[in-house]
Structure formats: structure tokens, C-alpha cells
Write the C-alpha cells for this entry.
Amino acid sequence: MAELSERKKKILTAVIEAYIASAEPVGSKRIAEEAGLNVSSATIRNELAELTSLGYLEQPHTSAGRVPTAQGYRLYVNELMERQRLSKEEAEEINRSLQIKAQQFDQMMDGVGKIAADMTNYPALALAARPPDTIRRFDLLYVDANTFIIVLLLGSNKVENKLVHLPFSVEQSMVQKLSTVFNANFCSIPEAEITQSLIAAAEKAVGDTMGLVAAVAGFAIQILSERRGAHPVLAGESKLLQLPEFRDPDKAHNLMDYLSNAEHLQNLPGTDFGDGLKVLIGPENVAEELRDSSVILAKYDAGDGMQGIIGVVGPTRMDYSKVAAKLSYIADGLSRALANGKDSALPGFGKLMIQDGNSTTSDK
């Protein structure tokens, strides 16, 4: 496709930014006022017509102004939009919100999803690549001849327990032996190392022929498996109802129903990108439920070579530059918190430097 002239680029940018602000078709008169071009209204109308024929704009009705197409938004995101930085107030608000303990991983994801939704006014998702967990300590508590309790203290400080009912009798001394063997051989190892050979060796060590070792090991494997993998969180989905594009209850319901499905979030199209940001505009989204929406995703480093995703879903009319700046800042904060694992303010986010009226961060 032919390269657009600078004038066409300025007019396209003016149309998109006016439409982002108003959600109303944009006419030539408003472009003449806002684009800063010393040309006649007739010239602007001709340029708008050409941009429409090229596929960057469309005209909903014959007498209406223009609105951007997905192709127009794509050019805007790739080449035309001004890269924004957060204001000092916005950065400080995010910093305050992120004063949470990095060890509390699930709570962190819930909180970060809410922060992103509140800061952007769009539904937000946080896809947590949960760090692998291990078991720090086994406590096996004898209740009676047919009952004992398994208590697992995980490396993440989370506690899991299970009440085990037996169809046969077991002595308290056997439960104590099990506790000793598990603490000596099953602590601080990943799920993959709890093998059949390790279980068989433990059964031999305690003289277990009744499946007690297998029961405890099976519970340990179950918990570590549940702690592994992605943990999708969705926040702020009701914010869709505040947007003109989703005043149709059926349209809003369909999108909210799609986003509320954890499997959909885990398999969100476009999550296989490298570092940085990914912007999916309208029909670039494979899922039919997202084809009238845009998705902006930012990756964060979850430690141990793993990554997670923070993102928002909204209309194609979203303010891409502003949303991208906020998501990048939140993702950077998550990376720092998870890499350092400290239950304090996010490292490097305590001081702000102001340059040309915008905020940047200082690690000094």
C-alpha cells in the first residue's frame, strides 16, 4: 500500500484521537479545528474520502462523519500515536497500590488485576505464571486408629491439609514414622522428583504395605500440581457497561461471559509474543467474541525463567498510548517485585524524576 502523505497522517491521527475522546463520528469541521492544518474544509473532505477509500476510515452513514477502521487503528498504533508516560500522580497511585507482599502470589494477582482495571477503566486480566512451589514441612497428625490429618507447609507459606479416613487400623507410631520419612526425603523438591521409586523407597523404609505412603505422596503431588501453571484473574468486567460500544446488553453479556471463562483467558489469542507489549485490534483477535474489541497485553517476569501477562480488553476506540503506558508500568513493577521477592515497596519505584512534565523512574 502506498505511503500516506504527512497531511493524511495528521488527519487520520486527528480523526482517531477525536473519536477516542467522543465515541462519535468525526466531521471535517472538527478536523479543521484540531489538526492544525492551513487548508480548506474542501481539501480536508477530499483527504477524508481518500483515507476512506484506502480502508483507514469508514463512514457509518452518508451524512455522518468518519470513524477509524481496524486498519486505521493499526497504523496509528504502529506509527502515529505519541508514546505517553504516566503523570507523577498516576505513577504514585500505582506505586501505592503495589505496596503488597510479593510472597502472597494469588492475592497479588487479584490486586494487580483490580489496579489495572481501575487505572484504565477497562476490564483487566492478570495471567499469573505461578512460580513452582515445594513443600517445606509435612505434619501428620494422629486422630484415632482410623484417621489422621496431613498438613503441608508450602515454600510459599501457604498451608494445605487433608483429613484421611482409613478402612483399617493404624498405630500412632506408624504415623510418626511416616512424618519423619517424608520430612527427610520429600521436602524442598519439585513435583517431578516425587517419583514412584522415591515412594517405593519410603514404603520400604517404614514397612508400609497398606498404601499410607502413596496416600500422603498423592496428596503432595496434587497440591504441587495445582500450584503449578497459570492462574487467570479477571477484574472490572462491569466497566464494559459504562462504554457506549457496549450499551447493547446482549453484546456486553457475550463479551463478559467469554472473559469470565478461565480457560479462555489462559488461551487468549496473541499471548505468544516476546517481551514488551502486544496490541490486538478488532478482527486481529481470532475469538469471535473479541472481534469488535481490542486487547492490549504486557508481559512481566515472574522469576525462575517464567513470565506472566497483564492486559485489558476494551473497544477499538480505546486510548492505546495511555493504556500501554499504564500497563507497561504495572508489568515492570510486577517484574521487580517477583524477582526480588521482598515484602516491601517495589524496588526502584520509590523515587520519581520529572522531565518535561512527565514522570520516569529512578533507581538511585
